[in-house]
Amino acid sequence: MTIAPAQQTLSSGSPSIPESVLTAKRTELDNLELKLIWGELPQDLNGHVFITAPVGSVTSDGLPYPDGTPITNGGGMVYRFDFDKPGKVFASAKLVKPPCYYADDATQPGTQYEKYKFNNFGMGRFSWSLGLKNELNTAFLPMRFAGEENNRLLVCWDGGRPYEIDPVSLATITPLGSNKEWRPEAQTPFKFVFKPVMSSAHPYFDIRAKDENNQPSPAAFTVNYGKSLKTILKTLPCPFELFGLPSFLDRACNNTANFIERDRARKGFCSQFLQWLWQLILTPISWIAERIADMKDIVYLIRWDGKGDVERWTIVKEDGSPLTILQTMHQIGVTENYILFMDTAFQFGIGQLLNNPLPNNPGAERLLRALITSPQLPDTILYIVRRSDLKNGQYPARGGSEVKVKARKVVIPREAIHFLENYENPDNQIVLHIGHVCAWEGSEWVHTYDTFASNPSQLVPPRVRGMISEEMDISYVGRYVLDGETGEILKQDVIKDFTCTWGISFFAYRTDPQTGMMPAKLDNIYWTSLGLWEESLTHFLWDLTKDYPYRTVSPEDLLLYGEEGVQPCVFRVYTAEDSIEIRDRFQFPDEFMVNSIQFIPCGTAEDDSTKGYISCTVFSPNHNELWIFDGENLAQGPLCKLSHPSFDFGFTTHSTWLPAIAPRTAAYNINVRQDYDPLVKAKKNPQIEQLFETEVYPHFE
């Protein structure tokens, strides 16, 4: 017998999350002319805006997922908006298709390779036979290497190698580096073909870099890191999907979860006991596994010249011990004299991959979540490496021993996912610009059994299941000046705003109109905020973050803000001087949401950093739109709005802008067959070899 949940209702007056942000189609587009639905299109719009978004899997036909899988788990779709024809805007879109895309497509239910199929596990898509799918759905990196006339473009994700795409055709071309140049998280006995590789969704391209002879030598920087078994076990999905529990056991699990969640002290005791027991079990297993499977904490800094082998350095602590990344390295930073690594507030572990391990046993699933989920780190952990120490790195494709470089640790109060930095280092000072996502469990999402924080007896509406989590405190914007040699924080300024800074998310700044590259100094930064929505304000996360150490808004007051709702904003932060302030803003109407902010410069590089336009994806209650703002005057509202009936892109993520595009001509291209054949043959499975011969390799030959 199933007991019906309480009626799913919202507080009176609380806005609803727009339906358009929860849905997406996987339909590719070719030169689709957008319709101007409001305002007038500026005549000096120029260049091309690229946006990426997760759009579901090969088996879901878009979003939403019926089982509550998070909307951020999905294969990447690249959208390009062309502003190079006066008075018109055209859109094209294409799925990112690395080799794992074709393997996923060929192993769908009903195919001859079904037993090797991929399944969604929370934040990732995984096959027990083939490995982790590289979703490539998060961000871009424009590049222009020495001697090249046109920009090249990488598309990136935290859980795999970056891939280069053709800016014109949007075709997926090649990974950055071969498999043998990247270290997987572990050499597991499963011998995965698609090995779990951890990198950064925001690598960096340094167009100002010079070689030892002081000659221009532009280079791309990224990271490749691995974790010891204690962390690896938190990032692999649980194989419980193969089994079910008797109904009486599931009811017992559900009652236990209720017992734990009702009493925070009890929950704390259970969690501490479980962690103690877990550490006791893991100690001998970890010792053995590190020697058998080569599982260990390691961080590599990667440098690439766009044409040759990958060069890397092993980053260690000041005492020479391995550098440990506790969460992820979602973004890195590069300045004239330093490389910056941040342990970002985005967890990638068993709690995030555990979406639906027991599809017929929600009680057991809920109990597992209650026991294993812990808050993210409340501080920003930053590591600084001197660029002068980066000499004669290791080339893994050629063999050789590892080259170690020491990093200095800095701890900054309040956590962050995104940060920016000034390139220049006067007096060895580093200027950081940080969006602090306070008490925001960004790698969580709304589960099928979640209830309202304001009324724990009521389930959240089914339509918002899979939506990203809600922030549990107001966000801050910070400006920091660090001593690059000592790590000392010389000056810090943080600000909040009860209109603008609820759920700071995406950022933009004016790039060089001729090259599309980042300026040497940032003095105006544009941010978006997601606002505060009661529909996704869940009791589980509200309770999880109650003891957040830097809390501004009390948990009780947060519920009051949630009842009224806080609408999203786009705002400009002036940060050129020794302090920061919000100088311009626009708050969106009720039931609208904004993502993927991008600056479109006009004029010359010497013009003011507000000279140009701001584009952003906007989710109305019923459809998707592209809005254009004047970069010098956000407060007046959008200059125009564009849309189309075929425009259904869902929760878009990061974006970039290029002044011009041309077909890719670079010679660099990793041969897919040579890259994967050793891994395929290591499986010693003729059917998997046949799968690659017939369904994967032909797409790249």
Automatic annotation (TrEMBL):
Q: Name one GO molecular function term.
A: metal ion binding
Q: Which cofactor does it need?
A: Fe(2+)
- Superkingdom of origin: Bacteria
Q: Cite the InterPro entries for this sequence.
A: Carotenoid_Oase
Q: What is this protein called?
A: Carotenoid oxygenase family protein
Report the record's Gene Ontology biological process terms: carotene catabolic process
Q: What's the family?
A: Belongs to the carotenoid oxygenase family.
Q: Does the keyword Zinc apply?
A: no
Keyword Transport tagged: no
Output the Pfam families linked to this UniProt entry.
RPE65 (PF03055)
Q: Which UniProt keywords apply?
A: Iron, Metal-binding, Oxidoreductase
